Queue: 4 jobs
Job 1
Amino acid sequence: DAGVIQSPRHEVTEMGQEVTLRCKPISGHDYLFWYRQTMMRGLELLIYFNNNVPIDDSGMPEDRFSAKMPNASFSTLKIQPSEPRDSAVYFCASSPSGRSGNTIYFGEGSWLTVV
Amino acid sequence: TQLLEQSPQFLSIQEGENLTVYCNSSSVFSSLQWYRQEPGEGPVLLVTVVTGGEVKKLKRLTFQFGDARKDSSLHITAAQPGDTGLYLCAGPNVNTDKLIFGTGTRLQVFP
C-alpha cells in the first residue's frame, strides 16, 4: 500500500518566493496533519484537517502560511512570502482517526531551504 | 502547558551495548507513543502504551509506561547500527487531544 506521499522532497528557494508543498494522504484516512521539524523546536503541529475541513490551525506561525485540502486525496501547505527562518523539514501525516492512541503515518518530508 | 522532556538528548554507543532513554512530564497522559525517525525519513510508530505500569516488548526494545502515567522509558538490549535514529515520545494533549511530541533522543550506534 502507498504511504503518505509528499512533494517536492527537496526545495531550495530565494527569500520572498512562494513555496507550495503537496501531500497525498493514505486513502481512507480522515485526518491529515502538517508538521514542521527543526533542530531548535523539534516536531511542531501546524494544522490538521478532519474530512477535508481545517480543525485547528493554531500552530500556523504567521499569516504567510496557509493550508488547504480541496478533496480527500490532496492537501497543500503554502508559504508566501518565504523567509530564511522557514527553512525546515515539513511533514504531512494522516490517520484513520483523530482519537488519541491511533497511529499517525508520516510522509518522508519536504526539505525546505530558503536562502 | 504539557511538555515531554526526553533524555539524553544525544547518545553514541558501540554495537552490543544496552541503553535506556527517558520521556518525562509533570502532566498525566492517557497514553504515550514512541516513534523512531531514521535519517531522511518521517517518524514511524513503534508502540503505544496506555496503562500505568504497562510494559511492552518489541524484539530487543522494551517500553514501559510509568505507574502514574507521567513518564515512559525505552530500553534497547544489544544495540545494533540499524537502531540508529531519532527516538520521539508523543502523547495527546489533555484538552485538545492533539499529539504533543517530545524533544527527542538522537541515537547513534557504531559498528
Note: Chain B touches chain A at residues 30-31, 33, 40-45, 48, 50, 88, 91-92, 96-99, 101-104 (CB under 8 Å).
Job 2
Amino acid sequence: EVQLVESGGGLVQPGRSLRLSCAASGFTFDDYAMHWVRQVPGKGLEWVSGINWNSGYIDYADFVKGRFTISRDNAKNFLYLQMNNLRVEDTAFYYCTKDVVGTYDTFDIWGQGTMVTVSS
Amino acid sequence: QSALTQPASVSGSPGQSITISCTGTSNDVGSYNLVSWYQQHPGKVPKLIIYEVTKGPSGVSSRFSGSKSGNTASLTISGLQAEDEADYYCCSYAAGRTLIFGGGTKLTVL
C-alpha cells in the first residue's frame, strides 16, 4: 500500500523553527517528485514547495522563500521540510504529497497531514 | 502568484451535470496543459480526480472529466450523485516552476 506519514508538527512561537518529516512506503520513492502542500483549517490549499526525484529541482512558493527548506533522503525514503522564522500565518495543516511519475505538477497521493500552530 | 479563480459555490440535482471553472492567466493555465483537480470531503484529505487537464487517475469515476480553453480550465461532473458533495480545487503549473491552486468551490447536491 502506498503510504505517506507526516510527523513533526506542533505548537511553536513566532520566529522559532520546526522540522517536518514524511515517511514514504509502498512505492519506489526515488522515482517521484514530492511536494508539501498546506491548508489552514476551513480554508483552501496552498502549494508550499516541491523537489524532483534527485533534488535537482527545488522550488518554493514566494511566501516561504528564504525561510523554508525542502530536502529528501532517497536512501531512507524520507521527505523533509525545515521551517525557520515561523510566522503566525504559517499556521496550517501540512501535507506531504507524491507526484505522478515523470511529472512535477500533480499531487497523486497525500499523507494525513501534520498540524503546525505558530502562536505566542 | 495570485490564486486561480473558481466560483465559491455551485449546486445541482442528482443526475444532472455541473461544471466548475478555474480561471488563470497566460502565465499558468493558458500556457501549460498541466491543470489538476482535487476533491475534498469535510475532514478528509484531498483526492486527485483529474490531472494534466483531461487525464483520470485509475479508480476515479469516469463521471469526472476535464477540459481547457485559453486561460480557463473546467471540471465537469456528470450524473451528479449525493457523494459528489464536497469541495473542489483546481491547480496549475505556472511559470517559474511553481504550482498555484484555485480558491476552491463548494459543490452542493440538492
Note: Residues 92 and 100 of chain B are 5 Å apart (CA to CA).
Job 3
Amino acid sequence: AQKVTQAQTEISVVEKEDVTLDCVYETRDTTYYLFWYKQPPSGELVFLIRRNSFDEQNEISGRYSWNFQKSTSSFNFTITASQVVDSAVYFCALSGNNNDMRFGAGTRLTVKP
Amino acid sequence: ETGVTQTPRHLVMGMTNKKSLKCEQHLGHNAMYWYKQSAKKPLELMFVYNFKEQTENNSVPSRFSPECPNSSHLFLHLHTLQPEDSALYLCASSQDRSNGYTFGSGTRLTVV
C-alpha cells in the first residue's frame, strides 16, 4: 500500500523567514514518482515539482528547494525568504506502479507580512 | 487556465436535486480522475478512468455516478446528496504516472 504523511497540519511564519515542509512516504514499488503541489485559495492544485525514485539529486528553483532522501523515505520542501504569496496549502504526492496518485493530508502555510 | 476546465465553479443544491459536474481536457491525456476535498481532510480519490474505462471506484456511494463518454470529457452526476457531501470536487487528467496530474480549478459544492 502507498501512503504519504505530512505531519505538519499548519505552519505560520513571518515574511522573509525560511520554512521547510516535511513529507514522508511509504511504498513497495521500486520505481515511483514524488510530487509537490500548491493549492492557493482559488482551489486548483498547481504542479511544483516531480522527482523519480532513481534521481536523488536535490533541486533548487528560485526560492524553492527540495531534498529527496530515499534512506529516510522523505521528500521535504523548503521555501527560502518566504513571501505572503506563498500562503497556500501544499500537498506532497506519490505515484507508483498503478498510475494512481496518493496525496498527503496537506500543510497549510500562512506567511504573515 | 490549466488545461483542465471544470464547470460550474460553484453549485448549491438541495438534497432532492439532480445535477452534474463537468470536466473537460484537451491535453491529449488518457486518464481522468475525480477527487473529493473536504475541509481538513486529505484528498480522496473517487473514480479513475483510463481510455474511457472505469478502472477504480473507491467505495463511493451510488448517489455519485461518473460518466466518461470520451477521453476528453468526464462527468459526475449527483442525486439525493447529503449535507456531508458538501466539498470541493476536483477533476484531474494525466498522460502517465511519471508526469503527474493536471488539475482543474474544482467545483465547490454545497448541499442544503
Note: The interface with chain A takes residues 2, 31, 41-43, 45, 48, 50, 56, 88, 90, 92, 94, 96-106, 108 of chain B (CB under 8 Å).
Job 4
Amino acid sequence: GDSVTQMEGPVTLSEEAFLTINCTYTATGYPSLFWYVQYPGEGLQLLLKATKADDKGSNKGFEATYRKETTSFHLEKGSVQVSDSAVYFCALSSMSNTGKLIFGQGTTLQVKP
Amino acid sequence: DSGVTQTPKHLITATGQRVTLRCSPRSGDLSVYWYQQSLDQGLQFLIHYYNGEERAKGNILERFSAQQFPDLHSELNLSSLELGDSALYFCASSVAWGSTEAFFGQGTRLTVV
C-alpha cells in the first residue's frame, strides 16, 4: 500500500541555518503531496502542497518540489527562525484512496537562538 | 482558525467507558476524516465520510464507530475504552474527496485512566 517515510528527528538547528527534512513516498497512481506543521498544543496546519510532478509548493519561506523520478518531496528553508520550531509531517493523498492522508512519522524541529 | 471545530478539547474517562467526540466541518465541506495521533503509532487514518456516507475505513477498531449527520457534522464513538486508546483524535474536512486540501480541527485529547 501507499506509504511515506520521513527522516527521523529531532533536528536541532541554530537560527538562520538551512533546513532540509527528507521525505520519500511509495504510491500507486499520481498522488498529491503535502507538508503539514503542528505547533505545540495545536492541530495540523497545511504548510504547502504539490499536486503533480515537478510542481513546487512554497509558503512562509518553505519550499518542496514533487520529484516523481526519485519519489521524493523534501522540505527546505533557507533560514530558519525560532518560531519554526514544530513537528513537520509529510503526507500524500490520492483519488484511489478517497483522499485520506497517509502521513510520515513526523520530524521534530527545534531552532535555538 | 481552520474553520473545523472539535469538541470537547479534553476528555478524561475511565476504562470500560464510552465517549463521543464531535466534529463540525468547515462550511460547505462534504468530507470528514477522522485520525488518531498517538506516540507509538503516529498519525493514523480511522474513517472517512462523504455527504453522510462512509467512504473508507482505515485502522479503526471494532469498538469505535462514526457517523455523519444530515447537517454534515460527524461524531466518533469510542466504547469499552482501554488505556491504549489514550490519544489525540483529529478530524479534518475537505470540499470533496480525492487529492484536495484537508483542514484540521484542534483535536480532542482523550485520556483513559
Note: The mean pLDDT of chain B is 93.
